[in-house]
Design a protein that fits this description.
The structure holds two protein chains of two kinds. Chain A is of the alpha+beta class. Chain A has three helices and four strands; from the N terminus they run E-E-H-H-E-E-H. Chain B folds into three domains: 61 residues, no CATH class; 103 residues, Elastase, domain 1; 160 residues, Neutral Protease, domain 2 (Orthogonal Bundle), CATH 1.10.390.10. The longest helix of chain B has 23 residues. The chains are: A alpha+beta, B alpha+beta.
Chain lengths: 94, 360
């Protein structure tokens, strides 16, 4: 199970709904892409390196629950690959 | 004490100096400073320019941002508006370059015109040649991502979502365009770290100048303006007028989904929070309101006197970690430099800050 919520942005508040995704129920190839891009190892390798001058960016709070354990990742959109952001948009639209 | 003949940065350097180097140094020194900081403390999110300040007048404490110290009389307006195709990759496809004809895409053309209006404002009012003061191309992406409820400055360009049509209906609005581009001006003016009070000052500068740009474009004076940031961008079913109000912080919206506008207008109401990088979009209401009050006291057009004070203060701040008090002192110093001791302008600036709970 993956949950995605947001904070920040120009309004200073997260307006996207918190989405909970049961990965097993996703259709292919969305499931495969979700497993690849939103797994703990992949997100753990993303450095939330500050981007000089950046402002009003959204921060994504991604919680991955698996095998009774959960890990949370707080990542600014400026640190996430474009393809991951597109995937998040796809999941948020479901 | 450093006894070696190496670069002194490798010797005992206090954390606050390392943090400024991390913000302003060249890539090599930035990485070095980060490594040193990581050894001794937890690094927080920081935002700043890579452009160092210039010393002026030979005094140890007199600095100015290069764009202020080296004003250019030549215009270099160079707009490049891109279509993001509702994807995340930036900048997307170039659809309107400088001098090109309107495309027929309302957002593209409005972003093009808006960027031009912001450029004209900074050039005509302050002699500033683009965001960096040296003719930096104005790169913007519209239709960024899918139903994206946001706009941002990423350090090199602006990006505007379309909104989802429910919470937000657009982000192509003059004060928003001015807000995002003014974050770039902050970046190239010494910078303000995007956290806590310095982050709130960063946000406030963007709101103040975004509001002024709208007033400039509409040719309204301080008493005619509604002082709203992002007027009309909220969705049709949202109970609210705008993102923020500089005139009445805390009243821009009151909605079942968005909640109540949380902005304070006085230091007594300062919000201590870990959300939103320490409330940078929340506590910006206090310096926003100070600027509004200053305008009410001075009258006229916002960019004629108060805007000159605020702009000069930003160009000479030289403190990426400035507190509200540091900024207030800077505005008084700017007013003294521009209008002299005992002037009504200096009195107005001091009184405005006093009214929001900051004595200078």
């Amino acid at each position: 199970m993956i949950s995605i919520s947001t904070s920040g942005g120009i309004g200073g508040f997260g307006v996207a709904k918190t989405v909970e995704v049961s990965v097993e129920t996703l259709p292919e190839p969305l499931r495969e892409e979700t497993c690849a891009r939103l797994d703990a190892a992949t997100l753990g390798r993303i450095k939330a390196v500050p981007v000089r001058g950046a402002a009003d960016f959204v921060v994504y709070h991604i919680v991955i629950a698996e095998g009774g354990a959960s890990r949370r990742f707080d990542l600014p959109e400026t640190a996430l690959p474009a393809a991951t952001l597109d995937l998040i948009d796809e999941l948020l639209a479901r | 004490m450093c006894e070696c003949h190496r670069d002194p940065i490798h010797c005992i350097v206090p954390p606050h100096m390392l943090r400024v180097l991390e913000l302003r140094g060249d890539p090599q020194r930035t990485e070095m400073a980060r490594e040193l900081l990581a050894q001794s403390c937890k690094m927080r999110d920081e935002r700043a320019t890579a452009t160092p300040m210039l010393r002026t007048r030979g005094s140890a404490s007199d600095f100015a941002a290069p764009a202020f110290a080296e004003r250019s009389p030549a215009r270099h307006l160079d707009r490049a508006i891109h279509d993001g195709g509702r994807k995340a990759a930036l900048p997307g496809k170039l659809v309107r370059a400088e001098g090109a004809q309107p495309t027929g895409d309302a957002d593209v053309d409005a972003a093009y015109d808006g960027a031009g209006a912001v450029y004209d404002f900074y050039f005509d009012t302050f002699g500033r040649d683009s965001i960096d003061g040296h003719g930096m191309p104005l790169v913007a992406t519209v239709h960024h991502r899918r139903r994206y409820n946001n706009a941002f400055w990423n350090g090199t360009q602006m990006a505007y979502g379309d909104g989802d049509g429910k919470i937000f209906q657009t982000f192509i609005e003059t004060s928003v365009i001015g807000h995002e581009m003014s974050h770039g001006v902050v970046q190239f003016s010494g910078g303000l770290t995007y956290q806590g009070q310095s982050g709130a000052l960063n946000e406030s500068f963007a709101d103040v100048f975004g509001s002024m740009i709208r007033q400039f474009r509409e040719n309204t004076d301080v008493y005619e303006s509604d002082w709203l940031i992002g007027k009309g961008i909220l969705g049709p079913e949202i109970s609210g007028q705008a993102l923020r109000s500089m005139k009445l912080p805390g009243t821009a919206y009151s909605d079942a989904l968005l909640g109540q506008d949380p902005q304070p207008y006085h230091m007594d109401l300062y919000v201590n929070t870990t959300e939103d990088n320490g409330g940078v979009h929340i506590n910006s209401g206090i310096p926003n309101h100070a600027f509004f009050l200053c305008c009410m006291l001075m009258g006229g057009k916002a960019w004629e006197t108060p805007g000159q004070v605020w702009y000069r203060a930003m160009q000479q701040l030289n403190n990426p970690f400035a507190s509200f008090n540091d900024w207030a002192v800077g505005t008084v110093q700017a007013a003294l430099a521009l209008y002299g001791v005992g002037s009504r302008e200096v009195t107005a600036v001091r009184r405005a800050w006093k009214l929001v709970g900051i004595s200078v």
